[in-house]
Amino acid sequence: MAVETITDGGILYGLIAVGAGLATGLAGIGAGVGEQGIGAAVVGVVAEEPGFLGKGLFLMLLPETLIIFGLAVSLILMFAWTPFLV
Amino acid sequence: MLRPVKMSRVVVAGSKDIIEPVIEKLHEIRLLHIVNFDGSEPGFDLGKPIGKAKEYSEDLIKLRSMSRYLNIKVKAPEKTYPESQVQSEMDNLLNSVSSNVIASYERIAEIVTEIKLKQDQIKGIKPLAVLPLQLEAYYGYDSLAVFVGTATSAVDADVAKVSSVNEVYSAGTKAGTVVAVFVPIEKASEVSSVLAEHGFSEISVPRIEGSVDSAMAALEAGIKNLENEKAPLQKKLADTKKQYENLILATDEYLSIETQKTEAPLRFAETTNAFVIDGWVPSDQFNRLKSDLESAAGGKVDVQLIDEKEAEHLVERGEDVPTKIENASISRPYELITRLFAIPEYKEFDPTLLVFIFFPIMFGMILGDMGYGITILVVLLALKRKFRTPGWQQLINLVILASIWSVIFGFLFGEIFGPLGLWGPIFGNLPEASIIKLEEEGMFFGEGVYGSLGRVGPLECFPLYRLATNAVLLLIGVSLYIGVIHTGLGSILGIKTELNYGEKKHAYFERLPVLLFQVSFALLLLALVVANWNLVLAGIAVIVISLVMMVIGPEGVMGATHVPFYVSNLISYLRLLAIGLASIGLAFAANQLAFYVIMPMLSGGATNSAEFTTVAIVVGIIVLVLVHFINLLLGILSPFMHPLRLHYVEMFTKFYSAHGGGVEYSPFGHVRRYLKV
């Protein structure tokens, strides 16, 4: 009985879901930490020099890709792998 | 359209007696981007202002201070004036009107200070009302030190300890004990430290006479009088503003134009009898410039076109060629996005056309909802009538086009206020049995149909339900390939830009390998998915070739270290799918919450929509509207920011601004807004 439960596809699916959540969530935290410093600096510069807005935005949006990596991993886990498991 | 307008370098020279008609004409035709003379050429001096330059700039300062007092801001013109009217009314405006305004404004400022002073005095004496002393008893002693203030506890006993001669008045109030302590002046410092132990905080007593109550009444009456004086003055200023606002704006414009004209020679080179103007003009306008100037000066001016080789030489010595970006009126709003980043240099590309093509499609693909798209469109069309300044109009036109695309994508995705929102009731759904059959076959792309047309497209995938597994996989692929096309176009422009600058090595060994790498990387992924091993090998081969090219390139091995960046560029495009999923998730949750949780729950667990109570339906709809509203606000912001990033980071870095921002073409002249042309 116990052996059957461990090999159950349901648990595997659950673990995949947890993994997917962690991938997006942790990547999100990483992107947030990266962006907070840049964001503060950009707001400071734009207050002094409004013409810097475009370049500031560019710098601020750079770490955003991090979360997309996490999300890509999640999507692959959730959608691309599960069909093979069942 | 992708390139800035072609410019030519010209030199205008003539004798000084025709300088005024030449400046007048240059100002009128607004063609010449003047290159300021830096005084470095031997034999030439900087020019001097002509005519009444000093007078005009003084008048302008006077006028601007008046408009600051009247709080006049630049706004869309309501009325235009002919120059002659401005000239005839200027005297009155700058003298009698201006001095009236200044007098009223200064009096108001005085009144405000006086009122503030009186209010402070009232605040000072108010606590003293509880003590039995007249106000003049608090000041004017030579041999006595006076402490007036509030304390946290009774002070008389401790004061008596340090100074046997004393007079202490105190009374308790809600805010604490109010005390007035009179001691000989030589005991002042000791008493002060004793008082400090009791949490003493001083009140400064104003030098007024009489009882506290009568003094307060007098002060309040004074404030009232001042307020009565202030109100009509403020009304007078408001009336003056109403009467003269448009005229002041027109006069400001007139004086600015005159100042600009009279001070123009400061930018020219001069000798004793002649002047020389350097500048750039759009090449196709040169003949017009030449003939206009010659007719204005009666043929006594020489307008010379400098040949390209010599112009190139000037550019090498540090002269900037001004960039005039020109786009069709429909794509012009997207210049906003280009300008926010940088003005392209003369030899670079103006990416506005590409932004115009890709930005709205990306916005639409992310938002992709007919309900939201139409709502944004209606709101923007209403705002368009309200906000008439060019900046707002540009932004609004930009988003209008984007929201049209989101309606189109909403139609492809089968979404009206969320997936399975209003689509089913309007256009219909597949029967339950065929949905289950499709799911079992792994061919489920959504349950919506286009009315009697049913489902359409390859694999019958439209309307595409974006939360279905198959749809997510399909959209991952589509997003990546949009990325390949987008960055690929960027790389191609990058190669051409480098060639324009004559940097062949940069073009073929820095930009080209990136293009090869990204295209073959995407092909490799596709080949892996369809398991075509020949294509896989070809992809790997091209990737290796591009890596070798990067290593040969100007940056050497360092060039190849950018490879992770190029991969992440492509993965970054997954946000086109991802941000959309987030917004669908919220819309889906709103619909579920209202129709499957709140409405049944509040109706006592009803399972059929016919049994819902009125209260349940009302509450459900409020929640529905609220959540959709929040989602819509987010749905404007993130589909705007993320494509912006895809342009700035993923595309522009491939070709744009590698050489520093350009100088925008700003011809000598002035656009008349408040003056009749």
Compute the average pLDDT of chain A. Answer: 80
Structural class of chain B: alpha+beta
Would you count the extended β strands of chain B for me?
10
Helix content of chain B: 55-70%
Task: Tell me the β content of chain B.
Answer: 5-15%
> What is the helix tally of chain A?
4
- Backbone CA Rg of chain A: 20 Å
Rg of chain B, Cα atoms, Å: 38 Å
Strand content of chain A: under 5%
How many strand segments of chain A?
Answer: 0
Measured by residues with Cβ under 8 Å of the partner chain's Cβ, the largest interface is: A-B, 18 and 22 residues
User: Largest sheet of chain B, described in full?
Assistant: 6 strands, antiparallel
**Architecture of the domain at 124-211 in chain B, CATH level 2?**
2-Layer Sandwich
Could you say what the CATH topology of chain A is called?
Answer: F1FO ATP Synthase
What's the N-to-C terminus distance of chain A?
20 Å
Sheet/helix structural class of chain A: mainly alpha
User: From the coordinates shown, what is the CATH architecture of chain A?
Assistant: Up-down Bundle
Structural overview:
The complex is a heterodimer of chains A (86) and B (677). By secondary structure, chain A is mainly alpha-helical. Chain A has one domain: F1FO ATP Synthase (Up-down Bundle), CATH 1.20.20.10. Chain A has helices spanning 2-6, 9-48, 53-61, 64-85. The longest helix of chain A has 40 residues, at 9-48. Chain A is rod-shaped. The two termini of chain A are 20 Å apart. Chain B is α+β, with helices and mostly antiparallel strands. Among the domains of chain B are: 124-211, Alpha-Beta Plaits, CATH 3.30.70; 425-464, no CATH class. Chain B is 59% helix and 8% strand. Chain B contains 21 helices and 10 strands. In chain B, strands 1, 2, 3, 8, 9 and 10 form a 6-stranded antiparallel sheet that branches. In chain B, 33% of the residues are buried. At the A-B interface, helix 3 and helix 4 of A face helix 9, helix 15, helix 20 and helix 21 of B.
